Amino acid sequence: MALTSDSEFEYPLCPVCSSDDRSTEFTFEKPYTVVVCGQCRMYYLYPRLTELAMLRFYEQDSYFQGGQSGYSDTGYSDQENALRSTFRRLMKRLAERKYTGGDLLEIGCGYGYLLEEARPYFDRRVGTEFSGEGVRLSEPKADAVFAGGIEAVPQEMKFDCIIATQVIEHVYRPLDFILQIRAHAKPGATVVLSTPDMGGMLRKVMGSRWPSFKRPEHVNYFDFRTLSGVMRDAGLVGLTNIPHPHAFPLALIASKFGARVPGVLGKTNIWVPATTVAIAGSVKDEGQS
Ligand SMILES: [Zn+2]
User: Fold this and answer.
1) For 63-92, what is the mean pLDDT?
2) Domain region containing 231
3) Distance from the CA of 212 to the center of ligand 1, in angstroms?
4) Per the omega criterion (within 30 degrees of 0), is the bond before 31 cis?
5) Is 182 inside a domain boundary?
6) How many domains does the chain have?
7) Residue 120 Cα to ligand 1 middle (Å)
8) Which residues face 35 on adjacent strands?
9) How far is the CA of 225 from the centre of ligand 1 (A)?
10) Higher model confidence: residue 109 or residue 206?
11) What is the mean pLDDT of residues 94-115?
12) What distance in angstroms lies between residue 188's CA and the mean position of ligand 1's atoms?
């Protein structure tokens, strides 16, 4: 399947504030650039694939296997150890803040590693996933997995906690996405969104070699200010930064600097702080003012 015919690209307005005032900040292989919005300072991919072309791209099972995942250049399952460690730490941070318990929904559950690590913390764990391979591998790790995105969750299902980790950078209409999440939240529920941190140390150190500059699939680049802004616009309250260090295999980081790390050493987890921004917000209780 050819991904790069001209008709498959669109030149979007700012995905957060719809402004067409932008300037180019990073230039990648043609036709991709990352621009910054002159109004709200949101960074986004410009141009981007049309949503239809992108959905066809995700439907290929090779998406997770062929180095296209948001996490690695070596495929998703190679990163299992690093991802599980990352999610275990996130669960601990959420439990400390009393955000766990009851029913959990994860949007974009990949191979189900987070849902499995969440088992001690929730009564029921449900996921959604676009990749057929991901659905198949997640199902044994969860109570239910729906094929697709948030719209695949039956309307009547409501949750105490909804997590979307490394998803909103893929989403074409971020505000609509959070509003859809809210429709599945019980009163007082917690919504946790995490995404590569455009304002983070790793991005600043690595410049345009930052591994999260993923074309074509990462269309939005948030930092704490822009992500908390869109969550607030969606009506979430009590927005809180959750420390979310991310483990990466050493080999992956070294490869970005053109270095090679031999064998076992390459699988060593390197904890990178402040490369991911995670924010928790609450859906107001009816009785709350
Ligand atoms: Zn904007």
Assistant:
1) 68
2) 6-282
3) 20
4) yes
5) yes
6) 1
7) 40
8) 24, 44
9) 12
10) 109
11) 96
12) 29
